[in-house]
């Protein structure tokens, strides 16, 4: 059974977003430091082992605060960027909804609720020191959905006729650019022994994923606008996103065994993006 000191150190490390090896090193370093502090208190103040552990932990600080400080030191400016994104997204959401309601006469209540919920979650994560945010998958998933919701907001803005459209368009694309930057930052951090290769693999997949998801979203929204209700073809338009996600997971599994094969699989979504580009812009380039 683990001691209170070991559980205390585990709680601190759990608040950090690092690789498995980095967490192990941090755990050993913190545990060694606290054990030395405990031994010192036992020798100098004559405390029992349990009382010395309690005082050593009390002097060191609260787990969430210490973990958040270490997290901030490991990933400087990430907290500030996420807070900036959250506040900027809230401003864009409220402005777009009010403008759409009073200028266009349309109340996008569903989009408003979803966008405000996502922006609030982005605001909540950096501020809540007791919430463990070391799971990159959940954070990146939130950021990806946030990007899609912001793109839908841009489609709403583009249909309006008002002098503030230019400002809102600039704001939403700054939000999207910041979101994509955070996705790259969180994903392509040092994880594993094949650092450069993994960064390149993640980079290829994120870049191709943005293109595939963006085009699928445009086709789905276009289908809703033209048909006015759900149609089977909309599911077909969304299928490339599912294929991309499956291939991404497969590549990460293969990378642990054979990086070359992982890269071969990674070329598939990249080729798909090239074919999409040729399909969309090829005829215009040819006839011009």
UniProtKB/TrEMBL annotation:
<feature type="transmembrane region" description="Helical">
    <location>
        <begin position="81"/>
        <end position="102"/>
    </location>
</feature>
<feature type="transmembrane region" description="Helical">
    <location>
        <begin position="262"/>
        <end position="282"/>
    </location>
</feature>
<protein>
    <submittedName>
        <fullName>Uncharacterized protein</fullName>
    </submittedName>
</protein>
<keyword id="KW-0472">Membrane</keyword>
<dbReference type="InterPro" id="IPR047928">
    <property type="entry name" value="Perm_prefix_1"/>
</dbReference>
<keyword id="KW-1133">Transmembrane helix</keyword>
<keyword id="KW-0812">Transmembrane</keyword>
<feature type="transmembrane region" description="Helical">
    <location>
        <begin position="163"/>
        <end position="188"/>
    </location>
</feature>
<feature type="transmembrane region" description="Helical">
    <location>
        <begin position="137"/>
        <end position="157"/>
    </location>
</feature>
<feature type="transmembrane region" description="Helical">
    <location>
        <begin position="200"/>
        <end position="226"/>
    </location>
</feature>
<feature type="transmembrane region" description="Helical">
    <location>
        <begin position="108"/>
        <end position="125"/>
    </location>
</feature>
<feature type="transmembrane region" description="Helical">
    <location>
        <begin position="232"/>
        <end position="250"/>
    </location>
</feature>
């Amino acid at each position: 059974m683990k001691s209170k000191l070991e559980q205390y150190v585990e709680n601190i490390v759990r608040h950090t977003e690092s690789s498995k090896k980095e967490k192990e090193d941090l755990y050993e370093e913190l545990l060694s430091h606290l054990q030395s502090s405990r031994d010192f208190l036992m020798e100098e103040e004559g405390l029992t082992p349990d009382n010395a552990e309690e005082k050593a932990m009390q002097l060191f600080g609260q787990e969430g605060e210490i973990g958040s400080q270490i997290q901030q030191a490991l990933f400087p400016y990430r907290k500030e960027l996420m807070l900036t994104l959250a506040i900027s997204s809230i401003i864009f959401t409220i402005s777009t909804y009010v403008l759409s309601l009073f200028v266009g006469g349309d109340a996008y209540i569903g989009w408003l609720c979803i966008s405000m919920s996502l922006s609030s979650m982005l605001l909540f994560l950096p501020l809540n020191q007791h919430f463990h945010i070391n799971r990159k998958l959940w954070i990146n998933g939130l950021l990806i959905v946030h990007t899609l919701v912001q793109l839908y907001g841009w489609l709403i803005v583009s249909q309006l006729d008002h002098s503030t459209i230019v400002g809102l368009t600039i704001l939403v694309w700054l939000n999207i650019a910041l979101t994509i930057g955070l996705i790259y930052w969180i994903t392509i951090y040092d994880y594993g022994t094949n650092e450069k290769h993994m960064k390149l693999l993640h980079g290829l997949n994120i870049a191709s994923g943005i293109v595939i998801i963006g085009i699928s979203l445009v086709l789905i929204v276009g289908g809703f606008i033209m048909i006015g209700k759900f149609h089977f073809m909309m599911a077909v338009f969304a299928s490339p996103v599912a294929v991309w996600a499956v291939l991404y997971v497969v590549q990460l599994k293969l990378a642990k065994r054979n990086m070359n094969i992982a890269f071969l699989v990674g070329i598939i979504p990249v080729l798909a993006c090239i074919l999409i580009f040729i399909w969309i812009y090829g005829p215009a380039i040819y006839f011009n």
